Amino acid sequence: MLGIANSKVIGGPGIWTPGATRIGPNFRNLTALIRKIFTGGVQGFAYDPNDLDATKLNWRRNLFTETEFRNGVNDITVKGGSFAATTFEGLTQGTGIRIDTNASGTYVYKTFTHQVGIPYVFSCYVRTLDGSVPVLGDQSTDASADFVLVGKGSAIYTPYKSITHLGNGLYRAVAVITNGSTTISFGVVKYAGNSTKPVIVSGYQLEVGSAVTPYQPFTDFNSEFIKAFPLHTLYQNTAGTVPVTAAGQPVGLMLDKSKGLSLSAELFTAALDFNNWSRTGAVTSVTANSFTTNGFGGCIKNPITTGMSLTKAYQVRIFGTCNVAHKIRSSSTYVGEVSVPAGAFDVTIKSPITFADSSMYFQLQAAGTITVNSISIKELAGNHAYQTVSASRPILQQTPILGDELTNVTSVAGLPSDGATYKTYSLGGAVVAGKRYKLRFRMSGYTGTGFIGFSVNDFAGASFGANGLYEFEATALQSRALVVFTGINATANFSDISVKEITGYRTDQNYLAFDGVDDFLVTNNIDFTMTNKVSLFAGVQKLSDATRSMVFELAPSTNIGTFRLEAPNTVSSGNILYSSGGSITGGGIAAIGGFNAPISIVATGKSNIAQDITDLRINGNLVATGKQDQGTGNYGNYPLYIGRRGGTSLPFNGHLYSLIGIGRLTTDSETIALEKAIAKNTGVTLNV
Amino acid sequence: MSNLSVVNIIPDAHRDAINQIAEAYGTGSNSMSVKLQDNNGDLFWGCHAWWKPEDYALFSDEELRNLMVPVELRESLNHLYERLILDGDSQENWQSALIELNLTIVEEQEPIA
């Protein structure tokens, strides 16, 4: 329930070298298929818990599509004077451009169609041939300057320019471009009036904002690929500031990949001016981009843009500095809130939470001053699933790699209690303190009031007081012989006993673990009103048949134009159920029994309201077909609930490996390909 | 790693206070979301969560708790049932808690199919 609020801020020194050739084994079939099937703006959703690569966290910041002149002078988009391709040490490609003196000046520019009215930062790496210090000048008549930076077609002068020595003769020059003409050139120039000392340049970077960030090289650019699939989609908090990087972490935000995770054009295009923002009494002074407070609670807010939708998600990025801890909210509700420690900050919020009043808030936690250098707001396309309540967040887990079986006893019948002491039965193996194990056993015939347990953990850690099949992981707290035991006043039978050491974890079969109590994720409304057909694919492990469970459902409950998958539906027969309905709610039903928990499956639901098709496929085979009347009309515009009906009932006790939904009937080849890819993620072998 | 299974249950009268405390810790606005009842028909609310053990230690720290929790809400903590298991099975922890307190889940009427 009550976890401790996180305040971690992402950003910083990570370097991402994107490009299809660099993705390697993590660029899996499923991602490729998602990219392929979601074309033409078809509605849907695609969630993939395998997107955990922390090195892919950095989304595209560098606006240039080639940054190190890998193809020599051909990669200069605007050029003139005396220049030549040459080598450049210290970056990724070893290539750069030499700039020499020329009577008409020499310029090496790249172009970008920028927006007027918002700040940009241009940066590049510089060396001299003789290893001496390159001098960054202000203007064309600066005879001591070796070069000048140009942004938006104008020379960038003090105090908007700087140069830093990074060691070994490598320098990084930075220009903050707050205004200028509409000319689209950015780069380096050596005017005729500058020095005659040649310089070599490479590593061009152009980014939105007023502060330079770590260099993000682009050398093998596939723009559509990069825009479509940044590979990290799981975050611990709803605001999307704390990524999920390892098993055992909660999932508060799961980004949808069906829209390619593309970012819109900049929405925050007006000039920042805090003078026009409303403020609390603790705010004592305000400038255009800063304000000062005299104590806790000093707050300033303003509608940030018009035309933002209550149901869309936005990526909000803010640079600045503050000498006290503060909070940033992207709506009036705290759920989109990010706590930021004192100091320089670079916060990116990926918030699917509605902009309830389309406002942005800055609140200082003590007397202090905050300066905001840049605000960027872009729509983050997709039907992202989130959970604002910590207690209800599923946990990201990874499939264990198991060692040999440690027991030589698979069943123990009638282990009694004498009413006074624990009774143990040796399983023939041993566990080692500190190691982690996967345990499985079925308990039946339990009577009494005592606990039943394994010695792999302490008594409280693996004790069981009800019949059932149990499968779980635990760390051995002691090195000891492996036994099964009954507590005082208890007796039970054991079967299906298995204890295996966990020797590692797979990274290609991640899953969300839903606790069967209160875990679920939900999206904003997904508009399926343009279609009466859907295809749904889920990789699922059902852990229990004890109670009816909702894997996913469009809308808070059965309604007009909805679909849902249940595992199980009825308790006794291990049912899997897929249902779809138009004007007749839940009219189409396809269900199959015999899939008793625990079991992993790839479940596919395909339905067509007009043609009364409700098909359920399990592991690649059509196992149930519902021909009932679904009525008329299309699917609705509702939230998608994952793991719990309406967020209040029928909680799913199990694991979700993948979930994809698309607002059309997939072709046979698409269906088979998706099922195969999800089967691989789920650890299921298809019999097709 | 969030591997401490924690079940919390609270009588209906204190649900709002516990939810407010949870919200003060930044964990959302409706933590106690599972409706329960005992044999007398009295209502309770419950939840299950995986905690980091170190987070739970912080939450249990009396001094920190006094700093975080307003005085008027502290009484509710005396009525908060907590059941902890390190590792283990979350369902087992949850079901054991319901058995111990003799509670059942209140399900709204749902269509069977």
Write a brief caption for the model.
Chain A is mainly beta and 688 residues long.
Characterise the protein shown here.
The complex is a heterodimer of chains A (688) and B (113). Chain A is built from 4 helices and 49 strands. In chain A, strands 1, 15, 28, 29, 31, 34, 36, 39, 44, 45, 46 and 49 form a 12-stranded antiparallel beta sheet that branches. In chain A, strands 14-16-27-37-48-40-41-42-43 form a 9-stranded antiparallel beta sheet, with no helix packed on it. Chain A is 5% helix and 43% strand. With 113 residues, chain B is of the alpha+beta class. Chain B is built from 5 helices and 5 strands. In chain B, a hairpin with a 5-residue loop joins strand 2 (34-37) and strand 3 (43-51). The longest helix of chain B has 12 residues, at 90-101. The relative contact order of chain B is 0.26. Chains A and B meet through strand 15, strand 33 and strand 34 of A and strand 1, helix 1, strand 3, helix 2 and strand 4 of B.
Question: Descriptors for this entry?
Answer:
heterodimer, A: 688 residues, mainly beta, 12-stranded antiparallel beta sheet, 9-stranded antiparallel beta sheet, 4 helices, 5% helix, B: 113 residues, alpha+beta, 5-stranded antiparallel beta sheet, 5 helices, 5 strands, 39% helix, 26% strand, globular
